[in-house]
Amino acid sequence: MNYLKIAAVLLFFIFTSCSKDTDFLIPGTVDADPNAGVGVQDFMWKAMNYWYFWQADVPNLADDKFPITAEGSKLYTEFLLSEDNPADFFRNQILFSEDRFSRFNEDYRILTQSLAGINKSNGLKFGLINPSGTNDIYGYVRYVIAGSDASTKNIDRGDIFTGVNGQALTLDNYRDLLFGDNADTYTLNMASFQNDEVTPNSEEIALTKLEGLQENPIFLDKIFEIQGKKIGYLVYHQFLNEYDEQLNEVFGRFKSAGVNDLVLDLRYNPGGAVNTAVLLGSMIHGTNTNDIFLKAKWNDKYLQVLADRGSDVRRFFKDKTPGGAAINTLGLNTVYVLATQGSASASELVINSLDPYMDVVQIGDRTRGKNEFSVTLVDDRDNNYVYTPTRVNKINQNNEWALLPLAGRNENSAGFSDYTAGLEPEIPLKEDLANLGVLGDLTEPLLAKAIEQITGQSAKRDFTVKMPIDVFVGSEMFTPTRDNMYANGMLNEK
Fold first, then answer.
1. What is the pLDDT, as a whole number, of residue 31?
2. How far is CA 436 from CA 142, 441, 444, in A?
3. H/E run at residue 446
């Protein structure tokens, strides 16, 4: 009997019968002294050594940095001990100097819940503005999450605040006052916009952050019938796998109603799941599974894995949802996308990946400029550190840290990915603090401009922006996932 064949069959059974996000095994690396108390740093180094996009550019992550010997183990342990705090170890020892986006969290539950749109929040989504040449900060409300504490208060889109708990917001204190450890409950000091100036008033709004608040990213969908045209309008705030079927249902309604023009509002969408971006692109343009949606550029290690198993870096338009439903596609040749500085990662991926196939008319402001994607990593060595929900009981119980490092870069079918400075709009139109408008209202400036383009008839309205909004930072940047784009669900696609 051929025992090598038996062993191969057993290994195949072991690795394919488990619920995993990967179908390969990372080669062994040097081990640390198990008594040194550096388990978190050990996980960080090994996970980043394999998955990090810039692994080859970080000397401390070099494959030959620590030989797999007793002496190598000693040197490796000493290196891990160089930083007592795992967060400092991550930042100072293994992060590439040009990396703007890789993240970590001390509790993988908080990070993975945020990937599903679940966060500790009072439901207020806002942008912060820092007037040029000053230390002052003021905020404006973008929208309010349904079912949140803010939804029960007298506060809404366009409202302005200049202080918290009686303290004026500044560059020095806004983090602590709005996002700090003691900011679960706070009172906003409101302001008015009068004579082209933001002026504090006496109104106060008390807000409380709730654990486990889940935001439905499908904020609003409408169908307008204007001058013989049926125009679909979708306000979409995050690319979340959990709402893929519901998103397809929205496009089912558009399709049944005969929608032949679409305004996709991504102005406050910081990104999310790559797979959902592919699905949305398919719902907009088409379901030809031979058409390339994106080409992913991984590091050399994972590229070799893809080559060994006969896979490639391409991802194609889809014809079915993850639940098996046929994708409701509009088959459009033109789409109008509303975007701002708050549009990032997966939002930009949709714009860039659709561009070779159709006319993508971007209206608004320049996007943020994030073309890299991440993989969610936890201390599950047998799954190559990739987070898989069904393997939570396999995660090292002594290490709850999670990483969200940049693992690659997406380019479109034409090979373009150079938009780190953001994607410029064909039709520039900044949001106006003096006339922010109501999302979904035909008089809201960005939507009105899109309707004007679709109908071909210019309205007798003035689109002059009196007080253009240039956001210093948005509230989404203080969630665990910030503006990340993640590709976990696509690792095993062939």
1. 95
2. 9, 11, 7
3. helix 445-455
Contact of 264 with 235, CB cutoff 8 Å? no
Helix, strand and coil percent figures for the chain, each rounded to 5 = 30, 25, 45
For residue 5, pLDDT over 60 is answered with no
The contacts of residue 200 (CB under 8 Å, 6+ apart) are 162, 163, 189, 190, 191
Q: Within this chain, do residues 365 and 350 fall inside the same structural domain, yes or no?
A: yes
Q: Are 345 and 383 part of one and the same domain? A: no
Better-predicted residue by pLDDT, 12 or 374: 374
Q: What angle do CA 170, 339, 147 make, to 5 degrees?
A: 70
Which tens digit of pLDDT belongs to each residue from 140-166?
Answer: 999 999 999 999 999 999 999 999 999
- 89 half-sphere exposure, CB direction, 13 A CA radius: 23
Mean pLDDT, range 422-429, rounded to an integer: 98
- Domain carrying residue 172: 120-214
Name the domain boundary from 214, 248, 279. 214
Q: What is the DSSP letter of 393?
A: G
DSSP state of 386: B
- Is the pLDDT score of 10 beyond 70? no
How large is the average pLDDT for residues 224-251? 97
pLDDT at residue number 488 = 79
**Are residues 228 and 209 part of one domain?**
no
Among residues 183, 202, 182, the alpha carbon closest in space to that of 192 is found at: 202
> 296 and 381 share a domain?
no
Instruction: Answer yes or no: do 338 and 450 share one domain.
Output: yes
Phi, psi (5° rounding) for residue 240?
-120, 125
Contact between 345 and 270 (Cβ < 8 Å): yes
The DSSP element (H or E) to which 5 belongs, if any, is: helix 3-17
* Two structure tokens written together for 280: 């949305």
pTM, two decimal places: 0.92
- State which of 214, 248, 266 marks the end of a domain: 214
Token pair, residue 86, equals 């795992």
Residue 175 shares a structural domain with residue 52: no
Q: Is residue 68 a part of any domain in this protein?
A: yes
For residues 340 and 261, state if they share a domain. Answer: yes
In this structure, the answer to whether residues 328 and 181 fall within a common structural domain is no
Residue 491 lies in a domain: no
CA 93-97-99 angle, to 5 degrees, is: 105
Domains of the chain: total: 3
The enclosing domain of 304 has a CATH number of 3.90.226.10
Q: For the chain, give the mean pLDDT.
A: 93
- Residue 256 counted as domain residue: yes
pLDDT, tens digit, 9 for 90 and up, residues 447-488: 999 999 999 987 678 899 999 999 999 999 999 989 989 997
Is residue 241 in some structural domain? yes
Residue with token string 């609003």: 220
